[in-house]
Specification:
It is a single chain. The protein is α+β, with helices and mostly antiparallel strands. The protein has one domain (about 1-120): Gcn5-related N-acetyltransferase (GNAT) (Aminopeptidase, 3-Layer(aba) Sandwich). The chain is about 25% helix and about 35% strand. It has helices at about 10-25, 45-50, 100-115, 130-135; strands at about 1-5, 55-60, 65-70, 85-90, 120-125, 140-150, 155-165. Strands 1-2-3-4-5-7-6 form a 7-stranded mixed beta sheet. A hairpin with a 2-residue loop joins β2 and β3 (about 65-70). The longest helix has 17 residues, at about 10-25.
């Protein structure tokens, strides 16, 4: 498996995975997520050119099977921890889940952020999301929890998780 920076030619593959991600959310009653760079007519090329937003894809036998988007200098409520990045979105094709794709994407992300001088990485995950255990295994610690009303009127509770990038 190869992890590499996303390119314009990856848009359709990433969009396929994003649609799969939203189908999973609908099945669990969570509702679709909004991700501005993958909405209709979104500026995908701008995302790829943004120094503060990095997208990496996992490719296996020429097929994109996962992606992760990182944000530099993310919202940092924990000023004492130094420079913080964020794992904004990670999606792995349901056909290859539990086969190390997510782990490899996260490990690549941590190395990338470390190389850019970041000390920590933040993410948020729904409280009821089974992926919370994955994040714990990857060394992320829960630091806070918050509930909010989504734009579609549904209530959602998320957990913020943080870990060192070194």
């Amino acid at each position: 498996m190869k992890i590499r920076g996303a390119s314009d030619s990856d848009y359709n593959a990433v969009m396929r995975l994003y649609m799969q991600f939203n189908e999973d959310r609908v099945k669990t009653g969570t509702g679709e997520a909004g991700y501005r760079y993958l909405e209709a007519g979104a500026p995908w090329s701008e995302l790829l050119a943004d120094e503060d937003c990095m997208t990496f894809v996992a490719e296996e036998k020429g097929v994109v099977v996962g992606f992760v988007t990182l944000r530099a200098d993310a919202f940092n409520p924990f000023k004492k921890v130094g420079r913080m990045g964020e794992i904004d979105l990670i999606v792995v094709d349901e056909r290859v889940r539990r086969k190390g794709v997510g782990r490899r994407l996260v490990e690549h992300s941590l190395k990338h952020l470390h190389g850019r001088g970041f000390t920590h990485v933040l993410l948020n995950v729904r409280v009821d999301n089974p992926a919370t255990s994955f994040w714990s295994k990857m060394g992320f610690r829960k630091v806070s929890k918050t509930g909010f009303d989504r734009s579609d009127g549904a209530k959602e509770t998320i957990v913020y998780m943080v870990r060192s990038v070194s």
